[in-house]
Amino acid sequence: KLDFPPPDFDVPVSDYLLNKEQIKSIYESSLSIGNFASRLLVLLFPELFTHENLRKQYNCSGSLGKKQLDPTRIKLIRHYVQILYPRAKNDRVWTLEFVGKLDERCRRRDTEQRRTYQQQRKIHMPGPDRREFLSYAINPERFREEFEGPPLPPERSSKDFCKIPLDELVVPNPDFPVPSLYLLSDKEVREIVQQSLSVGNFAARLLVRLFPELFTPENLRMQYNHSGACNKKQLDPIRLRLIRHYVEAVYPVEKMEEVWHYECIPSIDERCRRPNRKKCDILKKAKKAKK
């Protein structure tokens, strides 16, 4: 059995402390360890997750003109993540694998789509004796990005990250050589925008579309990331450049370098890390690490 030690630092508000059953419950409703961290963010920062979307003013570091999230609660999130994922004790791993994920969750606005999907989960989620995620097929096309549920129909979409009206969106041809099979039509790009809740999620969905060989039951994408860091292989630079080309087409901003670095790359790397498998595998690995 896993140990659930209390934090070794002062937590001034006792309501932020979670017991073993709460941690297990959150874990069992998560699709990845990154999603587990995102759910902890929602739980520990309730004042930011309201219809006012105040969280969009915050991120972990206070960079990009944002306010900094309460460091004590972020430290507590890391503490709980480390229980299930000991590698998060490494500062580099925490920064590369989780900080971007938490920042992305702050950027994402709550929509009717998310609220509807949450209601569906209350109805369809298996009970405690069947929590093996059997309702999720291995086919990656049936997995939903970041627990976001099915896409909204076009007439109900409100994508505040897309700076151009979708009916006026025309994607220019890339000014670099790209194999034709990877090129998307304007209609295809619009459809992916419709399915996305943030610019980072848009980049992650393009990853799935442009790297089909990595999104199979073999989970080959887990061997890759954007840069080739952390002993991973580097994703094909041409297709990554094409993803950025499409991001720039729908999100033309002056600070594209910062948007790409802080919003898109973390989402791409997180999507590569997320496997198609039962979540009990993470618990098994955590138990082995404790031995």
UniProtKB/TrEMBL annotation:
Q: Which Pfam families match?
A: BEN
SMART domains linked: BEN
Write out the GO cellular component annotations: heterochromatin
- Highest taxon of the source? Eukaryota
One Gene Ontology MF term: rDNA binding
Which intervals hold domain BEN? 13-113, 178-279
Any single biological process term in GO: rDNA heterochromatin formation
Name the PANTHER family on file.
Answer: BEN DOMAIN-CONTAINING PROTEIN 3
What is the name listed in the Swiss-Prot or TrEMBL entry for this protein? BEN domain containing 3
Species: Hypotaenidia okinawae
